[in-house]
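Researcher: Hi, I'm a grad student and pretty new to this. My advisor asked me to get structures for two proteins we've been looking at. I'm not sure of the right format, so I'll just paste the first sequence and hope you can take it from there.
Model: That works fine. Here's the first sequence with its structure tokens right after it:
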Amino acid sequence: MIQDWCFSLLLQAAEAPAPPGVPADSPAPSLFTGPGGMLVPMILVCVIIYMVILRPDSKKRKALELELKSLKKGDTVVTTGGLIGKVWRAEGPEVELLIDRDEQLKVRFRRSAIFEILRGEAATQTSSKEAKESA
């Protein structure tokens, strides 16, 4: 239906009479010619880039910010450096992670350094790997 409408619109534009001052035998003006001829394709490219790249990325970033605000003791997280640990303390802009239970190794990070919060199955897999390595 929309295709038919677009096709009929293009046909009307092609069959339109020439504007005054333009010879009748000259080619009909096109949507992509003239001073604003490249404007339509550029706008389309910008819309596609926004829909495919920018919008999903901003949704991911907002979801991570919400998760970081709700961070609590015992959550398993991955830092941007690749360290995996459990949250020992989460107060203010800093988070203290327990990296090694046996050695009581704790490291402080900024909340912004947390890349991912492992929930559910991913967190239990990490915990079981840690238990096997310490045994």
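Researcher: Oh nice, that was easy. Here's the second one.
Model: And its structure:
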Amino acid sequence: MKSPKASKQLMEMLNEAIAREIQVSVQYMWQHVQMTGVKGFAVKGEFKKIAISEMKHAEEIAERLVYLGGAPTTKPEPIRVGNTLKEMIQIDKKDEEGAIAMYRKIILLARKEGDEVTEKLFKEILADEEEHHDTFAGLLEDL
């Protein structure tokens, strides 16, 4: 059986998603290791947990892209660590908002192309991204 074919647009969007996932996985891990102070200590484990989740997303998307006949990128989007805890969380919240918007577009395109597996994968990842966004939004409330 042949692998299904995806449009060039969908393949490009999957690579954009991979670049974004690589970016935030490194970004959140670097923030984790640079956390200082009482407030930083209180949240650093959450940054590490989310960083690992994002790397798993990159892997899942890359596996799907290869199955569809593409080659995954190794280049992340620009990594922005920030200087203070508040700045870090603001950057991260915004990045999650961008991912949510992008993944909704991928879901719609995959549905339009009849690619149920990609649609399902991104629905699952979208749920994680919304949870990450909620975490960062909640952390900002006390800063």
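Researcher: Is there anything I should tell my advisor about the second?
Model: You could mention this: The domain at 8-140 is CATH 1.20.1260.10 (Ferritin).
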